[in-house]
Amino acid sequence: MTAAPAFALLHGGGQGSWVWEPTQRALEAKGARVLALDVPGCGVKRGRDLAGMTVDHVAAELLADIAGWTDGPVTLVGHSLGGVVLTRMAEAAPDRFSRLIYASCAAPLPGQTPIAMIGGGVQGASQSEVGWPVDPATHTPEQRYRAMFCNDMPAGQGDDFLARLGPDVWPTDTFTRSDWRYDHLAQMAVSYILLDRDQALPPAWQERFGKRVHADRIARLDAGHQAMWTRGAALADVLLEEAG
Predict the structure, then answer these.
(1) What is the SS3 assignment for 102?
(2) Which of 16, 50, 120, 219 could form a disulfide with 42 if both were Cys (CB 3.0 to 4.6 A apart)?
(3) Do residues 80 and 201 lie in contact, with contact meaning Cβ atoms separated by under 8 Å?
(4) What are the pLDDT digits (tens) for 44-70?
């Protein structure tokens, strides 16, 4: 009898495990085992003292969370900024994962902070910065987040999603660190899911990131940045296919 596939899901910056709820339900309905992880300061780990916590501390804690859940092979899925932590987890415990799946994940250049990767201008203004979908100098944070995260959501769903943002705080080191490395991923099974309607990390940048993390398989989904929220069942199908 084939064992049920096991997925560990890692959320993006400024969010928590709650963002995976629709996708988790869809995966479990199809027989998968799912652990939705929380970075310290997020989700069920809100309110933690994050002083001095580095991205490597985060990776070690999440690996311990997985070890406490299962000792079998796991497909590790990351989203957005979660990609920088996923990459560190894979380096620390490469034999722990049957496949890594980057879903519209950021992969800053070695020597570049995630903050510098995004930059301060609009998308397309600089070839070396992802940029913002609207001018950050003339738009409020809510307007920026609505453009980044909610472009494929009905108005009510977008309002509900934005109301969930705010309480989840990532350790500062995940935004300001610059010693990223990816060579170890060339020896691992890696998928990258491109979200074609993404306005936070446009598809052209996702293609760059997919190459940077040595993805041996590329999948696509017609969805915005928060596909796990807006198209949970469709994303679950892609994850199951990639993990298979």
Answers:
(1) strand
(2) 16
(3) yes
(4) 999 999 999 999 999 999 999 999 999
In this structure, are residues 224 and 235 in contact, taking their beta carbons and an 8 Å threshold?
A: no
Does residue 1 surpass a pLDDT of 60? no
Q: How far apart are CA 237 and CA 103, in angstroms?
A: 13
Q: Is 222:194 a contact under the CB 8 Å cutoff?
A: no
Most distant CA pair in the chain, distance: 58
**pLDDT tens, position by position, 106-156:** 999 999 999 999 999 999 999 999 999 999 999 999 999 999 999 999 989
Measured distance CA(43)–CA(66) in Å, rounded: 16
The number of angstroms, rounded, from the C-alpha of 153 to the middle of its chain's C-alpha atoms is: 19
Q: For 76-105, write each residue's pLDDT tens digit.
A: 999 999 999 999 999 999 999 999 999 999
Q: Is the dihedral of CA 227, 205, 207, 76 positive or negative?
A: negative
Structure tokens that stand for 122 in this block: 């609009």
| Residue 189 CA to its chain's centroid (Å) | 17
Query: What's the whole-number average pLDDT of the chain?
Result: 96
SS (HEC) of 143-175: HHHHHHHCCCCCHHHHHHHHHHCCCCCCCCHHH
Structure tokens at 222: 């017609």
Cα 193 to Cα 103: distance, rounded to the nearest angstrom: 5
10 three-state secondary structure: strand
The structural domains of the chain, ordered by start, are 6-115+169-243 (3.40.50.1820)
Question: Where on the phi/psi map is residue 104: left (φ > 0), alpha (ψ -120 to 50), or beta?
Answer: left
